[in-house]
Write a structure and sequence with these properties.
Glycosyl_Hydrolase_47; 3-stranded antiparallel beta sheet; mainly alpha; 361 residues; globular
Length: 361
């Protein structure tokens, strides 16, 4: 993902270290950014990953501390990303070359991915604010312009778009991987603007209505889930990544039309409950990468290739949003269950190692 850049975890953790008052570790990380985070590198990196982890981390650190080194590094890195937008439509490619400044190719061949080019807006507006250079804001506003203009099947946003023609490449729609953070950035752009970015607000609620109309389902067992859409045919599954949507819908409920607010709060609660069930119904009580609703089985992984857990935060994130909104103690209890189960797995691995020190883990 980062290839030529180093220190992703250091930079992505700066704000956490600061907020947790881990002062010694924060100073060590800051010193690393000052002395060892070099931008005169050659090679390629993911535009999306560099933006959300490096630029997002640097911006957060700057706003928390006011330390100029974070602002300067964020702006310089943002400038390095600009060549990715040199396409006929202005929709950026997924990979940028730091050596040549040319844009590379996304993993989906000649397509750009909705969740990638749709998750730049927050950071790029702040790069403009902190640098005075309008080019960052212009780049992401153009993405909005293209997306507003293009015809969308039933109001849905497919996951793949050609940066050359400006047309959808496949009619695959997902609120999970490939699509997820596009929707998140819309509602958060509305909130970040002090509720003045009405374009983002309208795009968010229009997209949510289409999702609810064409993707939302309730299983025979009463579980609400958001399916994936492939040219009109539904895959009755949710990815763990899609479980952020409970928190997102809860966050956006306040500014929905008055007659829809209670509905969205309940929808958020039901989706979050379904994601909790994907944990509760697994053998380890940790949620799978994806879970299905078919053949009488609900909210469980049905394929070995999806039966794993890689510390994804989306389910616990939704617990936090729902707790903040409702103060229902069940969400804290569910979050604590994840802590206890994760700790149990760690202790179990440690115990096995102690019994068999030669075992490679």
């Amino acid at each position: 993902m980062f290839l030529c850049l180093s220190g992703a975890t250091v930079i992505d953790s700066l704000d956490t270290l600061y907020l947790m008052e881990l002062k010694e570790e924060f100073q060590e990380a800051k010193a690393w950014v000052e002395e060892s985070f070099h931008l005169n590198v050659s090679g390629e990196a993911s535009l999306f990953e560099v933006n959300i982890r490096y630029i997002g981390g640097l911006l957060s650190a700057f706003y928390l501390t006011g330390e100029e080194v974070f602002r300067i590094k964020a702006i310089r890195l943002g400038e390095k990303l600009l060549p990715a937008f040199n396409t006929p439509t202005g929709i950026p490619k997924g990979v940028v070359s730091f050596k040549s400044g040319n844009w590379g190719w996304a993993t989906a061949g000649s397509s750009s991915i909705l969740a990638e080019f749709g998750s730049l807006h927050l950071e790029f507006l702040h790069l403009t604010e902190l640098s005075g250079n309008q080019v960052f804001a212009e780049k992401v506003r153009n993405i909005r312009k293209v997306l507003r203009k293009i015809e969308k099947p039933f109001g849905l946003y497919p996951n793949f778009l050609s940066p050359v023609s400006g047309n959808w490449v496949q009619h695959h729609v997902s609120v999970g991987g490939l699509g997820d953070s596009f929707y998140e950035y819309l509602i958060k752009s509305w909130l970040m603007s002090g509720k003045t970015d009405t374009e983002a607000k309208n795009m968010y609620y229009e997209a949510l209505e289409a999702i609810e109309t064409y993707l939302l389902n309730v299983s025979p067992g009463g579980l609400t889930y958001i399916a994936e859409w492939r040219g009109g045919i539904l895959d009755h599954k949710m990815g763990h990544l899609a479980c952020f949507s409970g928190g997102m819908i809860a966050l956006g409920a306040e500014d929905a039309k008055e007659e829809k607010r209670a509905h969205y709060r309940e929808l958020a609660a039901q989706i979050t409950k379904t994601c909790h069930e994907s944990y509760a119904r697994s053998d380890t009580k940790l949620g799978p990468e994806a879970f299905w609703f078919n053949s009488g089985r609900e909210a469980v992984a049905t394929q070995l290739s999806e039966s794993y857990y890689i510390l994804r935060p989306e389910v616990v994130e939704s617990y936090m949003y729902l707790w903040r909104q409702t103060h229902n103690p069940i969400y804290r209890e569910w979050g604590w269950e994840v802590v206890l189960v994760s700790l149990g797995e760690i202790l179990s691995d440690r115990s096995r190692l102690l019994r068999d020190p030669g075992r490679v883990q």
